[in-house]
Design a protein that fits this description.
Largest interface: A-B, 38 and 38 residues
Number of strands of chain A: 13
Strand order of the largest sheet of chain A: 6-13-11-9-7-8
Radius of gyration of chain A: 19 Å
Largest sheet of chain A: 6 strands, mixed
Shape of chain A: globular
Oligomer: homodimer
Helix content of chain A: 25-40%
Strand content of chain A: 15-25%
Chain lengths: 277, 277
């Protein structure tokens, strides 16, 4: 039995479906406030608050989950508004200390907590390997020589930022770093490319520049991989980027057929690139 | 005689005034399209296009300038709209190649061009040393222990980004990287902090987070240093940051008395921090 602790976004559902399609029994713990749709109605599930680790452990144990996977976005709550169970009260100071060191430190701390509680923490690549992007184009189009240069530069930027636990995405156009992701998230980062002067970026007449997403060097297999979905392709097309490249083996494609079709329709490439190291 | 090739923003005027106040004769070449105010009317000056290096050299020689300083923002023009003189035509392919490698490479190329034309390229720190920020607070307030931690993390981020010629600024709040500067510039970077969820940043009730600006490791003394002015203080206050830290000896404060007064009035610290290396 795979227990999925689900935050927001499309990833938890995609993982749950892929794991079930692969023949595994799945139990979902939906985090209140983070999960905004009732997709888990389709699975055995429970709702718990982020300040209720005691209830989460009880729900997972009751369901017979051996493996536990954390997936999806979780807002850093205002601690003043947090509902805490007994275990949450004990855990809170350590959570705050871990959160201060960044998202990855927080996720590592939580994985350790579930390990200590008798579960085996697993990552998406283990639970749903079909979601991981391999090498090569996802749709029909491929990057040209200029795009490849921009992709290499953008990967260098993302790796430098990722080593400092800042972000997972960057956009580069003919050598110029258009945008770099921090707390605003990839969608907001992509959208602001449209506010840059036209000389710096692509236009409706001519697509220019690439978006890159890659695993942070500090990330291990348990933490969320960067994700590309249909909405990422639409966002990149809206600001006239020429394409999207992700680290092969280090990023997830949600709805691969849909991503390929939308990329072809909008005239963008989406591709997996093997990175040394 | 100091020749100042002036782009946009407040820096060129501040340098011209500081140099003149220091007893130097100054001649200003205003770049058409980049200089939007007629402040240079107060100095001996000429107007030239960015595609007219021949005219720029002639104006500087005619004025008897020995030293040449490049200051201010210059938009990357659409090459299709560029007015070129004979020397500009010869130079253009090299300029494009340099610009591909980033702003610093472009500035180094231009400095080399003026050196070859018989001038001595100088930086702001040389021409107007009074503008360079030293160590310690500019206004009344000082960072506390938490701020100092955020400042150290933000400097680490800026240095990593700077090594890749991405940007000069970052904002961090209690360990979380709120925003990182790329092509949008510091003002736009600061402004978007206000769009982040309140749990991540400061509010009207409680200021949180720091803005940091530092020299890129790839920058030499000739290229523009990061600048903090009254408008930077206002922008940081508008998104409820607790303060601004710059690299001592590696950033400029424009209108130091005005920056100190505005920081005190709005309740922010502005400080110069010595960085090792």
């Amino acid at each position: 039995m795979l227990g999925i602790i689900a935050g927001g976004g499309d990833l938890p559902r995609a993982v749950a479906q892929a794991a079930r399609d692969g023949g595994r029994a799945v139990f979902v713990v939906c985090l209140t406030g983070s999960v905004t749709e009732d997709w888990a109605a389709d699975f055995p599930h429970a709702w718990c608050g982020i300040g209720e680790p005691g209830r989460v452990v009880k729900a997972l144990s009751g369901a017979g989950a051996a493996d536990v996977l954390l997936a999806g976005k979780v807002d850093r709550p205002k601690f003043s508004e947090l509902k805490l169970d007994a275990r949450g009260v004990l855990l809170l100071p350590k959570v705050i200390a871990a959160a201060r060191q960044g998202d990855d430190a927080l996720l590592r701390f939580l994985a350790g907590f579930f390990r200590d509680a008798g579960f085996r923490p697993v990552g998406v690549a283990q639970a749903a390997p079909g979601l991981v992007c391999g090498e090569g184009p996802v749709g029909r189009l491929q990057p040209d020589e200029n795009h490849r240069r921009d992709i290499a530069r953008a990967f260098a930027i993302v790796k430098a930022l990722g080593a400092l636990d800042v972000g997972q995405a960057a956009a580069v156009c003919e050598g110029l770093a258009l945008a770099v992701e921090a707390a605003e998230g990839t969608d907001a980062m992509i959208a602001r490319i449209g506010t840059l002067r036209e000389a710096l970026r692509g236009t409706a007449q001519k697509k220019r520049g690439v978006l890159v997403k890659a695993l942070k060097p500090t990330q291990d297999a348990l933490t969320d991989m960067p994700v590309v979905g249909v909405s990422t392709v639409r966002g990149a097309a809206a600001v006239h980027l020429a394409g999207i490249a992700v680290q092969a083996g280090g990023a997830l494609i949600l709805d691969r057929a849909g991503v390929a079709a939308e990329a072809d329709r909008l005239g963008l490439f989406v591709t997996g690139v093997a990175l040394g190291g």
